[in-house]
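Researcher: Re-running this chain for the archive, since the previous output was lost when a drive failed. Same request as before.
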Amino acid sequence: MRSRAALLTTLALGVVAGAVVAQPRPAPRAWVTDRAPSHVIFPTQSIPLRFDHARHLRLAGVTCERCHATAASSQRASDRLIPPESSCAPCHAIDRARPEGTSSAGAPATRCDACHVGWSAESPLRVARVQIPPPNLRFSHARHVGLGARCVDCHASATTSALATRLELPRMEGCLSCHRAGGAPDRCATCHLTQPDGVLQTRFAEGWMNPPTSLPDLHHDADFWVNHRFVAARDASRCATCHRDDDCAACHDGRVRDRRTHPNDYVTQHVSDARMNADRCGSCHRAATFCAACHQRIGVSMTRARGARHGRFHPASRCGCSPP
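Model: Regenerated structure tokens:
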């Protein structure tokens, strides 16, 4: 495990080296996989609208930039980029005084319920609002546009979708096609939020941020509790991106063990572990002190501590035997 000073030095050097530099633009690609975007990074949205992106983009003169005009100058991931009603007005003759107005054949719809799910003349004020929580990321559309990136480079699937939702947002694999060694900055803190000391923030109201399966050895699955020592042995600096030294000490101090290591009723189960994996037990416990002292107290050792109660290896049975 690296020292705290070494960790802070590495993080500081990473900040200095983190300036975005111009990179060749990748070929457009839809970042659609079987894995949906993380709900922790992109929280659940509510978009009660009727809108067909693919249909609109087939119309003459309609482009991403026409409706999302503020995206090119957006500096923060939390900026609201949903088009305002005024961006629809050039095509849709919206008249709030005539919410049920009809349009001529072939003309764009003008009724409120053509776009707003749930609208009715009886309850015009009960239309659900669009809810798009800010993503837990650092991101500047303006910086990427300035480097030559186009909307379809990251949102290609929106061009063939009806209502675009969080499912059309980029996956991390797509970002890493540019953000890699020798390319755009590949430090995690380039995009992910950090705490004051530079360690990544991994706990949010939406849940815990877990590295994706596409990052070798870093996804925290069910086996990671057992296998993480191999990852730490190869390169502890990767662990230090999200974990502090005291995170490790909380388990490796030999006093407190997580239930994933010692499950409930482990006292009656630890015999087999001790016989087959004594070296693992020895990483925290000393047989001459910890094990012997406990065995003496309960009377299952060759010698018994003064005042210890008698213990036995086997419960009472029907064979007629009795404990000595």
